[in-house]
Amino acid sequence: MELVRRLAEREIRPVADEEEAAGRFPRETFRTLSELGLLGLPYPSEHGGGDQPYEVYLRVLEELAAARLTVGLGVSVHSLACHALARHGTKEQRAEHLPAMLGGGWLGAYCLSEPTAGSDAADLRTRAVRDGDEWVITGTKAWITHGGIADFHTVLARTGGPGARGITAFLVPGDADGLEAAAPERKMGLNGSPTAQLHFDGVRVADDRRLGEEGRGFRIALDALDAGRLGIAACAVGLARAALDEATAFVTGRRQFGRPISDFQGVRFALADAATAVEAGRALYLEAARRHDAGEPVSRHAAMAKLFCSDAAMRVTTDAVQLMGGYGYTADFPAERYMREAKMLQIVEGTNQIQRVVISRHLVGPPERD
To answer: Which of 46, 185, 349, 368 is catalytic?
Structure first.
């Protein structure tokens, strides 16, 4: 963990404001992370992974996100893109592809959402049609982190009838013929992390790039999302921690009415609430991580962690801006960037409304109309 902290403080945090303002993706940083083994922490060492428990992996994500969310989120998304192959690929597929994905400098993207299929992901329209020993993929994916720069993509496409049972997962190389990225989306935050639509115009992939059985892709996708939501929770705690640190330094250094702002009870209570939210969020995601490492079901706990931690990040970053007053609203301080970035965490990998659906289903079952 000390290695990650030193890297974050030396190479990531100092340039974060400048690179986010310029919309630059830190690809060289990701190459460094790959060389250090930090892009494959929770995966097997036999294929270049780190054989680390999820508890360790998530603490690393928190540290990276505290320095720059684009980096923490990017590592989480890359890990999500590796998940289907690592968990559901054949022995031969893992041996062929995982080394480059985990430690060879490659960057991944996870392609589930579409322009008309976001929260209702099972309604996806991208289709894969078999042609001999190949599959021909046609359709459009939306909101793809690393869209246009990824070296590989885990793609969910329809190979059968409507609904979740007609979906299959594929591993598609970034340079595949017929694969094109649209211009990156113009977002309110995370400008250094490209998000784009991907257009599949008759993209051909061999059958040995199909991940898992035909029609089992949606289960594979949900399995990956459980793990991915824990990554978002850890990133949210890192972002909230960075905002708390920024606000604390400001209020202890600025004086009003003849004394430090931090002397006022209202300010102290706001800091106390923020610190409590950070600690509670970390405890929640680590408990879910321990369940994951023990092989226990984590869908409910992952949804809880993602829900609580991202809501906490939104609240803590907003309060940090408020505590800093006009200075917090300017780009001279990172607090306003933290607040803009926190909003995305309530949306990505299942909105927080969807997380409440997941949690409530575990508690009382699905509604009767389902």
So the answer is: 349
